[in-house]
Amino acid sequence: MSVQVFIDGAFYGKEEAKISVWDHGFLYGDGVFEGIRVYGGRIFRLEQHLRRMYDSARIIQLDTGYKTDEMTRIMIDCCRRNEIVDGYIRAVISRGKGDLGLNPRKCKKPTVVIIADKIQLYSPEAYEKGMKIIISATRKNAPESLNPRIKSLNYLNNILAKIEANDAGAQEAVMLNSDGYVTECTSENIFVYQHGVLRTPPAHVGILEGITRGVVLEIARDLGIPTQEALLNTHDLFVADECFVTGTGAEMLPVVEVNGRRVGTGKPGDMCRRLLAAFRDRTRMEGTPVYNVSPLEAPIAKGT
Predict the structure, then answer these.
(1) Which residues pair with 199 in a beta bridge?
(2) If you average pLDDT over residues 191-218, what whole number do you get?
(3) Residue 151 annotated as catalytic
């Protein structure tokens, strides 16, 4: 069965799912999005993802056209139609169709797209053996130029750094800000563990405050592991006992090499393994049910 995609009130097969070439999300990257995981038939941390998406939309003065409870129903409906038990939801809200000019006021109605499908960003081997990353020469956009707390459709800054990683034969790239402090990777937050303390860059250096990042900090505190949101530079990456990245798609992934320098023993460390096990336990216990629930039974979308 073809993947069923929600677009503006109706469902379409993957091959028929289309938006206008005059859509300002396509023309200018004017819009916001969220990536959300589904584990065991439950949407993990849905409320937090929706809050971030609606906050992002509010900052750019974009009316989503749907209340949060309606958006929840659409996502559940989308998962059901695609029989998603373990998978990924991509929600995209663009400014909508306008003209070839930049003015967002020419866009009368937003475009809302919801996709529910499988995802695998990294191989199982990467979780067992760890991955190699580089430090990108591409600096992170300055927060005063583009607010990193907006999860927008404009990802060219990150893509340029990802190209550097690809060209270097690495899986990811760390991006520094204009002051030389570590911010995040192209699509994940980053952590280091040294001298018994787990540290990750604070929001003000220019990061997207990841949902998975927050969950890992929660778990670490529950386990009694000291945590800090602290300024980090390349020195901290090079001398760390352990390093790992976090993201909705990636979950938690150990880093064993930075710019050709071995991290710790050069193998995934015990702390990362411990946190990953606890994270997976949490994803099995928490979440908004997709199946066998009553409050959200009636789908609001049209389509077959």
Answers:
(1) 192, 228
(2) 97
(3) yes
